[in-house]
Protein 1
Amino acid sequence: MPKFKLEYIWLDGYAPVPNLRGKTQIKEYEKFPTLEELPDWGFDGSSTQQADGSDSDCVLKPVAIYPDSTRNNGAIVMCEVMLPDGTPHPSNSRATILDDENAWFGFEQEYFLVEDGLPLGFPKGGYPNPQGEYYCGVGFKNVGDVARQIVEEHLEICLDAGINHEGINAEVAKGQWEFQIFGKGSKRAADQIWVARYILNRLCESYGVDVEYHCKPLTGDWNGSGMHANFSTEYLRETGGKEYFDKLMAAFEKNCDEHIAAYGPDNHMRLTGLHETQSIDQFSWGIADRGASIRVPHSFAKNDWKGYLEDRRPNSQGDPYAIASRILKTIAEVPTS
Ligand code: ADP
Ligand code: MN
Ligand code: MN
Ligand code: MN
Ligand code: MN
């Protein structure tokens, strides 16, 4: 029987931003295993800020499996961290999602590629041309010599893995990029963001490049990085209406602080009211308004207030499980009749 290399990956207990961890288990299967065929596994939680040394065992529970085309017979296995008694570990944000298979999420992950502490394409000790030509740009002076190669390889590996990328683009700052992932089911979308981040981090190792997910790595007139969360429920897609929309926005406004708390650290550095953002302490919505907290697409307003909405506040370092969990919690507070 062929031996499969199963890379079990999970989120550690670091705060406010968990790190990805992974280790390989070799197991024999007739063919590429299904999720149900994967055993739970364990790790030393005292090395990941998830347990004390005196009682260090944590459990890895597989929740999704993806083919890994960078290895022969390879798979990436997304895991939730559980306590030995079978309940979710306190760091397990995925387990807090009020699951809703009818909720669809599209995340737009922005990030910088950095080498020796500088975004790719920044000259040592100086600055490149100001922002303007980099967004969706082309050519060495705009993109540099290696960034696109990384971005293209990342896309190939993700598509091989079955990750539902919708697109990629160069972003407004030099060395800044974006990919979009859409999923039916909030957990499916959020799992795929974490796996895509894992693949990108690992790919960049061989280039001597790191991925900077911080939401505002550069001071001055340089864009920060977000992770806009586009969302819809079955009710929003099929029923909607202005009255329901107004109640939903009132609930988002009431829970503004709780949303910000779930949307990634240091967001005050990014949500300034400039660079296509609303201030961190204000809530607003607007049709096609990229300076609002929530952008209502034209298609939504024109279609009797039905469709999907874009929460522009989540940042690039945010945990998509925590973000989806908070959005679904607020939606659940609003009666649909
Ligand atoms: P922009 O950059 O203009 O905000 P993008 O095209 O980058 O727009 O992202 C819009 C995202 O909206 C897409 O990635 C897609 O995943 C998401 N989306 C589209 N339709 C729906 C829907 N019905 N429910 C949830 N998300 C959706
Ligand atoms: Mn050992
Ligand atoms: Mn986008
Ligand atoms: Mn963008
Ligand atoms: Mn967007």
Note: The chain has two domains: 3-82, 104-332.
Protein 2
Amino acid sequence: MSDERAGDAVRKAAAVRLEGVRKSYGDVVAVDGVDLEIRAGEFFTLLGPSGSGKTTTLRLIAGFERPDEGRIELGGADVGDRPPYARDVNTVFQDYALFPHMSIADNVAYGLRVRGIRKAERRGRVEDVLRRMRLEGLGGRKPSQLSGGQRQRVALARALVNRPEVLLLDEPLGALDLKLRQEMQLFLKSLQQDLGITFVYVTHDQDEALTMSDRLAVFNSGRIEQIGSPAKVYESPANAFVAGFVGVSNVVERGGRRFAVRPEKIHMTEAGAAAQTGSHASTAAGSSRSARRPRCTKARRTRSWRGSSASRTWSSAAAGASPSVPRRST
Ligand code: ADP
Ligand code: MG
């Protein structure tokens, strides 16, 4: 390979690349031919309902599972034959998986000790990461002496202390209550931006995925239905599954066509008043064709997916209710 082409390869190497990856357990096809490219420094989310293959995909990347077929690359290198400890990734599990008998500091230092890092350096790195995780002064406690949110941050500290290129997070906020979960979403996002580490984040919570991700992949039955930015996936769902799973949408039928219309894009008008816009979008919710959502310039500008999805509902009984459906731009 010429120097120039080698340079190109380095520049273009994705943090994580999956090609034709397949994994079955007996009759169950958990991952059914997944192609995926995650860029270095990206906050990338695997979003999908329970059982759609998200955890299996993450475990394949980590090396806890071997694919039946396909190729897995990290930083451009084929890691198919490497065990988990020889991959530059760390995983944060939903149940934290802390050692209950060890202190917080020893839990966090564990990976460094296994790798033979000297005690003085271990201590420095553990202190540094505990401070970053806002766990200063808690190193001497046992996991049972911490709150759920603190335990969660210990699990993060334990992964981050190894300074991995890629951090894999499997529903890391699933056990927290709503308020703490929202705080942790902000914390995780700013942490990821500070550290510049690639995050591969698994969740079934579409709001979480839309809020936090640079890009996301929507999983369904072991396959990826769509990959894109939150705005793209929300505004232009690739098909009826994505339209139904991401965001709240009302299906409206007009002239034999079905439209997926988001509640916040519906304008209520007085009975008899002319609707602002009423032209048809050539969209068919419920079919496998593109289920592009009708656009609303204002909503797009304000990134309106946050917290607004259930703010209005439309019913055909409402006098003069009129879905505002600008013409689809093709
Ligand atoms: P998700 O994380 O999206 O909920 P999983 O990847 O855990 O989905 O599971 C995908 C499918 O594979 C499910 O049907 C699940 O029951 C099955 N599965 C996952 N792990 C195993 C296993 N170790 N043995 C048998 N079936 C499994
Ligand atoms: Mg899972």
Note: The CA atoms of residues 41 and 197 lie 5 Å apart.
Protein 3
Amino acid sequence: MTAVSPHLSSIHSSAGTRRGQSVAFEGVSKIYDDGTPAVESLDLECPAGQITVFVGPSGCGKTTTLRMINRTVAPSTGTVSLGGRDIHAMDLTELRRGMGYVIQDAGLFPHRTIVENIATVPRLLGTPRREARRQALELMERVGLDQHLAKRYPYQLSGGQRQRVGVARALAGDPPVLLMDEPFSAVDPVVRAELQEELLRLQRDIEKTIVFVTHDIDEAVRLGDQIAVFTTGRLAQVGTPAKILTDPASDFVDEFVGSDAGVKWSSLLPARDIEPFTPPEDLDGWQLVIDDEGRCQGWRPPGAGDHLVDCRRTVRLASDSLRAVFDALLLSPCHLAPVIDDQDRVVGVVDYASALRALDRQREASR
Ligand code: ADP
Ligand code: MG
């Protein structure tokens, strides 16, 4: 028998074995029993293994649409399918087992410990206690939770930690589809950004089909492979984040993406093809000061002796976006941004002209 590396065995034993399946809506409408129209003739495909974000103002039908995927809401007309199969022809238990569900307050069982919460679905599926526990501990690690939290109860965790538990619990049955309804809306912006990063990192491994609901366009742009913009029961536009930001289909979408759509778009554009250069000798007297290890110390203003102006921002072209480059340029006292490598050593500078050339190249490439 050949040895399996610990990394591989952990991936195959819990989340990540079952890749996503596509979810599709065809002519789907929902009118609630009291006559409220929530969704009108919706046609939409959420591609397998990708993140589709439903975004739009409150009350426009996002949650209703999401809940028609796991049949907690039944469509009035139309068909919802999973991997090409009509979900209403499927066994309900089988359907639900294939879908993890994460909601805003995480919806954890208050009287169960964290590890018991995460092990809920595997236990229901008949996994022996010890094995379910082992999988739960592994999932805690995957979502960035320290194992010393395993025996705590939900009220003993922070909001951000509870959301991580919610994600781990949703992944525990290894479902191909993950439904997430405003999962990060109640946590503060810093923790929220961490949770978003974590979800993207996780998704690179597990490639689930994720349908993610938010009312926040920034969150949609950060997370979505595809964004579906809703307006009272209808789709206003479906497209990549870049398409939605640069080519809104209507005044509604234009207004919804906000007045800084261009700036948001620049956060999607990589800075990696900008060529850093050596700062010219005569920079109106400004001089970039570097220490013996090659690290940036600051800008020395014209004729200012030993006084240095802080660099504020440096950029790593390999991983930063054009937005980060523009931010660094805007904050620079001399219209140049220092470029550093992954050991924080200065390798050169960039200016507005080089950033704008990169922007033009990417605009050209996307045509
Ligand atoms: P969103 O998630 O975008 O905020 P919802 O899907 O929750 O929107 O709601 C869409 C519309 O359907 C709203 O007008 C809402 O009041 C209505 N609605 C939601 N759930 C029900 C229900 N169970 N019964 C009647 N109307 C509902
Ligand atoms: Mg909702």
Note: The two ends are 52 Å apart (CA to CA).
Protein 4
Amino acid sequence: MTRHLRVDGPNHDDRLDHMAQGVIGQPLNRLEGPLKVSGRATYAAEARPGNLAYGVLVQASVPAGKVLDIGDAPGALAVIQDKRMIRHAAQGLDEKGPAAGPARVEYMGQSIALVVAETFEAARHAAQNIAVRYKPETVPVDPESVTPELPPKKQSAAGDLDKAMREATFALDRVWRTPSQTAAAMEPHAAIAEWDGDGVTIRAALQMLSSNRKQMADALGICESKLRLLSPYVGGGFGSKLGINAEAVAAAIAAKQLGRPVMVAMTRQQVFDLAHRRSETRQRIRLACDAEGRLTGIGHDVLVSNLPGSEFTEPVAQATPFTYQAAHRQIVHAVARIHRNCAGSVRAPGEAVGVTAFECAMDELADMAGIDPVELRLKNIPDVEPTTERPFSSHKLAEALREGARRFGWSDRGMPRQRLEGEWFIGMGMAAAVRVNMLMESRAKVTLVQDGHAIVETDMTDIGTGTYTILGQLAAEMLGLPPDRVEVRLGDTRFPPASGSGGSFGAASSGNAVFLACEEIRQRIAKAMGCDERDLTLQDGMARAGNVARSLSELVDGMITGEGHLEPGKTEKSHRQATWGSHWAEVAVNRWTGEVRVRRMMGVFACGRVLNEKTARSQCLGGMSFGIGIALTEAMEHDPRDGHAVSRDLAEYHIPCHADVPPLEVHFLPERDPYVGPLQAKGLGELGICGAGAAVLNAIHNACGVRVRDLPATPDKII
Ligand code: MOS
């Protein structure tokens, strides 16, 4: 039986706070951790079916044009040209894949063919030496060289911002720039496809299996029921595996043609070209306020880029309309159609770079108005969403700011260039954190077996975030079992379709589905006990209600199965849902070299119920580290002649490493959000990155008096 729930109203039930075992929220270690660190968790490229052939993608060496012909590849089994395998990762579900045929090149580095050989080395050799003739075209590759498009749904305005700027006591008008960024998942994209008659099984590195199956079925021109996707372990996604990508489609096409299993694994360099990037941004931010620091005008004009016809637009200013209150407002999202590699969702699309620039602007305004930066923010927090007057589902920005200031010792902050230790200027900075919250339709199946163990099945993925663990914890709590008596099976499209991992929605969405499935099982047990499900306590293999206690093995005949189905409903529209927090950083800036060392960093976050304190904290540690990357190190540089990504490995593209990241402190504010389903949990995955870089940049200014608006803040821009 399936228990459905559409989230149409509030849920104030606090039963999860009073469960018998108290497992939910506990900082349990990741269940699959030992498998991963001992090499027993098999990632996409690690299966070895018999008779496996190896494919290597051939990449375009011109920025645009037609492929006229592709030469022979001596020693290869096949050279496959098929434009279906171009399919960009960022391509939406509604965009139909192209039909078969020779490829058109839209950016330098795009996949145009697949060479298959008996070994990876032979395939790579042939792919690198193959002769390709093009009819090249000259195309724009610089976002500021073209007239941008203005997608109508991405704009918003109220009042008269120009007038507000003219009449303001303090007015700030500045431009920030952030470079293209890459997702930089540890596991490069890979797939192994194997056909059995007209059905195909593809092991791949993917974040969202049920939508990936639709995309893949469309790309291959087969029925979804003929396609099984397996993604039990994924070595990070960060957005780059949200959609299907060239390697998986190519593997399936080649495996069909050759009648044997084919693996296509990208090299690290190929990932930089073929997985989408985060668009570079140009952000003009205008702020107007009165003498007391009350905002009267907010402007956020954004320019991003993508390929012609690509659906995705980095929603840079998506949190701007509801973070602070101002009567006059203008939000513009413009898209330059250029021929750099495809742009798509990467690590908190929108807020990661948008909140970063905006929170730097708030710091500059505070400076200008002579108001403490924390105070300026506190003065401008709205009671309801300013644009729609909808209430917030839960809103702890003010608490996060106050709690952070207290814990970090904000009152010790001095003036720029005031604190010098040896040759290092020391400074403190802060920023608000905000990220939109989403809930996605999700299903799960839970089976309680007579011998006192349970199995959770859903096509949900665990991309390193802790999904196995939190879903196991939830089922253990609801069914009164020790967590090690719950087996969690994920990453297989044969299981009920879940939200997948993305947009910070994975844990809450799939968790609610597991909760509902367990409620269904509890209902059945309650019926056998002759009590109400609410009065049922399950613990240590026993069912108790009032004075009655019976063992589960007696109540469960063989096994009980329950299915849960969660759908977002009216609360999506009735309430503005977001997660909130604050970031704090202390940096040292070398007065002679401009080198920045982050000395300590802290985040205070509110995300509704925390499902596992340890995995939640780890998400925030990762986000904050990436915030250091946005502020100081990360940049995908494009060749100005052809748009090609020239920083294309992890030596050239600097993700902060351990030496760059100081001890990070994370604090969660207790919160239950009634409008986001029975778990009362919002998404947390991406909150830690949103605004983190601004705390670092603002600390740089407080240390040495320099504002860097062209990110990243490398020493040459500070000295
Ligand atoms: Mo995320 S960038 O939606 O994986």
Note: The chain has three domains: 2-30+439-573, 44-138+185-274, 350-437+577-719.
